[in-house]
Amino acid sequence: MSSELRKPIISGNWKMNHNHYEAIQCVQKLAYILTKEDYAEVDVTIHPPFTDLRSVQTMIDADELKFILGAQHCHEADSGAFTGEVSAAFLAKLNVSYVIVGHSERREIFGETNEAVNAKIVAIQKHKMTPIVCVGETLAEREAGKTHEKVLGQVRSALEKRSVEQIKSLVVAYEPIWAIGTGKTATADDAQRMISSIREEVAKISSANAAESIRLQYGGSVKASNIGEIMSQPDIDGVLVGGASLDAAEFGRICQYRLRPLNP
Length: 264
Ligand code: PGA
Hints:
The chain has about 260 residues and is of the alpha/beta class. Helices cover about 45% and strands about 15% of the residues. The protein has helices spanning about 20-35, 35-40, 50-65, 90-95, 105-110, 115-125, 140-145, 145-160, 165-170, 190-205, 210-215, 225-230, 250-255; strands at about 10-15, 45, 70, 100, 130-135, 170-175, 215-220, 240. It starts with 8 loop residues before the first strand and ends in a 9-residue tail after the last helix. The model has no long low-confidence stretch (mean pLDDT about 95). 2-phosphoglycolic acid (PGA) binds near residues 175, 221, 242 and 244.
């Protein structure tokens, strides 16, 4: 269980799934499942595609829903000649609070570099939103014994030019790439070990204070059946959920992990 200082955070990354009609249905179902006790215990962030954001934001406002609105990506400039991109400034205007940055699909398919990830983090924080920074190794890197080098390198680069206060409010998601969408999960022990190394690295490059406050998630094939074990680890403060967040009932069970025994 994560420290008292850090409220657990469970995030649903819908990726390029659910058009805005489907988004409304999914959010309505989830609103029906989750209770005010759930929101008191856990921050629940939903990250729909850009085209759904306005619809979901309107629902959250009209029905006073307690989900936190998130996005999956942004451009670091406030505006300009960047066809197809959406700025952090625009997201902030839509009451988006969390933005995923450097997801492995963005890094691998769209060539996002560590430098670009850092620039986006700066832009997101400039607009008073919270970045969820994704880091993780490929299977080949893991098999070559390079997991720490890769992941901690990504963390160091992401945190460049950030003050202790800025680092304290960040979320970092450790997502081993071989576990994303594959049904393979890192064992809870394995995830705990890597995530505790990330916390130690944050202490080294920033301060003990920052390391104590930063929230660290695990991501990669998280489901209702494995969430209990993952959340029981001392350094894991939450999860970033892809496939299983598309189904409101399953995602609801994940958000309510604390209501069920560890090994039912
Ligand atoms: P998954 O995706 O839960 O479908 O493995 C996680 C992610 O990509 O954030």
